[in-house]
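Issue 218. Parser rejects a valid record. Input:
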Amino acid sequence: MFSVKTGIFGVVLAVTMALSQPAWSQSTNAGNMGLPALIPAPMPDSAGNFPGSDVSGDRFQGSVRAKIRPVQHAILSAPLSATLVFLGAREGSRVKKGDSLMKFDCTPLEAQLIVSQTRRKAALTKLDVNERLEKIHNVSKLELSLSRSEVELTEADIKGIRAQLAQCSVDAPFSGVVTQQLMQAREFVRAGDPVLRLVNIDDLEIEMVVPSSLLTRLHRNDHFDLHVDELNRNIPSTIKYVVREVDPVSQTVRVIGTPVKPDDDLLPGMSGNVSFDFSQQQPSSSAPVSQ
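Output the parser choked on:
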């Protein structure tokens, strides 16, 4: 009786173990289909290249945006508090270096100059008298010293007023186009108020932010293409310099380029995508150029 139960128990145990064994662990020759092997998803390397692409780096696999910016641009502000009596340019006007752009009413300063010149004349007369009295020992050294100091003070006042009068007109510091007019003629402006924005649209450069992993692959005069969205065409360009600072958060660096040829259609503020062609670059062991 014991042996029969033991035999039955052994058969049940063997069947149970056979059923609990995973089906995919059995041989496919027995008619069981195994699970397919998992194919790892392709991951880009540090340069942005995928294993399926050309790992030699013909093209940078990624989107790099760039914008056109002027090399020379300035917001011309009022150098003093006065009434703006003349504006030599308006929005859209093209000016040359040295052209008169602003003139201010400096009548109060001119009156102050006359007063200071009169005081200087009186101080010189007093000093001359005291110097003559000093020769006959009829004036104290303190009085003579104060007379000389008064002359120096009036001369300093005159110098300061003339410096302000020199700011009564503002000339264009460089040739360009007025892109903004923030004040109108006959308005009273305070010192430091912006009046005109001047941009040199004939001297443009390209600013972009690229991954810092490309730092050693970017060199002076390396070629790249900028596809300008507004023009819907490529602009052949070269690298001008690389700003030698890596943003620790985004791990990027700023790169400045310039168009190969002048293009009248390019305007400040235009933007587009940049594509590098590393296959056209010569290997270099030198560090990337910086400004």
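Fixed in the parser; the record now loads. The longest helix spans residues 107-135.
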